[in-house]
Amino acid sequence: MTAVAGSVLALIVLAVLLAPWISPYPPAEQNLALRLAPPSAAHWLGTDNLGRDTLSRILEGGRFSMSVAALATVLTCILGVGIGILSARRRGWVDEFLTRTNDVLLALPEMVVALFIVAALGTGFGPLLLALTVTGWTPFARLARTLAYDVSARGFVDAARVLGCSPRFVIFRHVLPHLAAPILGQATLRFGHLLISVGALSYLGLGVQPPQSDWGSMLAAAQPFADRAPLGILAPGLVIFTVALCVTLLGQRAAHMAAGPLLLPTAADT
Q1: Nearest to 256 by CA among 182, 176, 172
Q2: How many degrees, rounded to 5, is the angle at CA 264 between CA 259 and CA 268?
Q3: List of residues 6+ apart from 251 with CB closer than 8 A
Q4: Each residue of 185-244: pLDDT tens digit?
Q5: How many CB atoms lie within 10 A of CB 19?
């Protein structure tokens, strides 16, 4: 199953990266004489309400949707893990403040906060990335804090402190490796969630602006014509689902494989 998921994901990512060279038509090129045309040899997925080639727009839209979701996943992971480890290491009032802040943000609906940030800062790549990063780091922080507390209580960490190892060495040599597998699993789940969030915000008109496309804006534009050109809404929706599913399957498999050697400390740890 993971081999199939990896092959499908690799094919989609490669097609999106090569979009400027393999797209059959310019994504913004209009041909009103062919508006809402069904699939054909000339237009494999048909055309939209302005006669633009659906396949070309999916390939172009993937560059935006996947880039924002991937970068947001990396940034939220780095920020959340850093805050979680800081909270576990400092404890006291620092831990209390960060934990309560985390609880407050977890209680707020992510999409509502993201909508507020994007509406205040404007549309586009930067505001959308910032909104998803601000609202998405909390699960990583909670997970990292819990795991860091557990690892810090183990004997090999105490031994490293007694031997005079610096806090930075302890974190990077002993703590972070034991967080890798669960954090990787969390990251893959968050990527799928963030990809859907990007699509939702773009669907509401807060993503890219015409004539540029992304998968969410394509869903919004195709919805009024779903009965006449169903592929216009099915194709981008299916791509979002497929990418999120493939990344989740691969990430869970990688996390499961990485968890094995991290269950026990190595000889160097002790």
Answers
A1: 182
A2: 115
A3: 184, 185, 187, 188, 189, 191
A4: 888 888 988 999 998 888 888 887 777 888 998 999 899 998 888 888 999 999 999 998
A5: 19
One-letter identity of residue 235: A
Can you give the pTM of this predicted structure?
0.85
Q: List helix spans (H) across the chain.
A: 2-17, 19-22, 54-90, 92-107, 110-121, 125-136, 138-152, 155-162, 167-170, 176-203, 215-222, 231-259
Q: Report which residue type is found at 5.
A: A
CA distance 89 to 161: 13
Contact assessment for residue 113 and residue 196, using Cβ atoms and an 8 Å cutoff: no
- Contact at 8 Å (CB) between 60 and 212? yes
Angle at 142 between CA 137 and CA 144, to 5 degrees: 90
Tokens linked to 270 = 């002790």
Burial class of residue 120, CB neighbours in 10 A (0-12, 13-18, 19+): exposed
Q: Tell me how far apart the alpha carbons of residues 126 and 121 are, in angstroms, rounded to a whole number.
A: 9
